[in-house]
């Protein structure tokens, strides 16, 4: 018999994880310090933890899932990006700054 409840949480399906906004913010701060405030896209520019400017740090998927697939918020697939780099990257996997 299947161990999943009748209405499983999204994180219980297909091994994918989904984070709460509080968990995402905590990870953002951790990634920011692990990356020494440098954007993960490879541009070499610095980020800030303040909100509302183009240099703001955001957390996003390094390898995004195609449209229609569940997001995989596993720590190994997340990085901190500058807001402007993240918006330019979009959902492309082959982005080069």
Molecular structure report:
The chain is α+β, with helices and mostly antiparallel strands and 97 residues long. It has a domain at 19-62 and 72-89. It has helices at residues 21-34, 83-89; strands at residues 57-61, 78-82. Strands 1-2 form a two-stranded antiparallel sheet. The chain is globular.
Describe how the helices and strands are arranged.
Layout lengths: L20 H14 L22 E5 L16 E5 H7 L8
Supply the helix-strand structural class: alpha+beta
Mean pLDDT: 77
Distance between the termini: 49 Å
Strands, total number: 2
Cα radius of gyration in angstroms: 15 Å
Largest sheet: number of strands, sense, barrel closure: 2 strands, antiparallel
SS summary, helix count: 2
Q: Name the strands of the widest sheet in spatial order.
A: 1-2
Shape: globular
Low-confidence stretches: none
Order of helices and strands: HEEH
- As a percent range, the share of strand residues is 5-15%
Q: What percent of the residues sit in helical stretches (DSSP H or I)? A: 10-25%
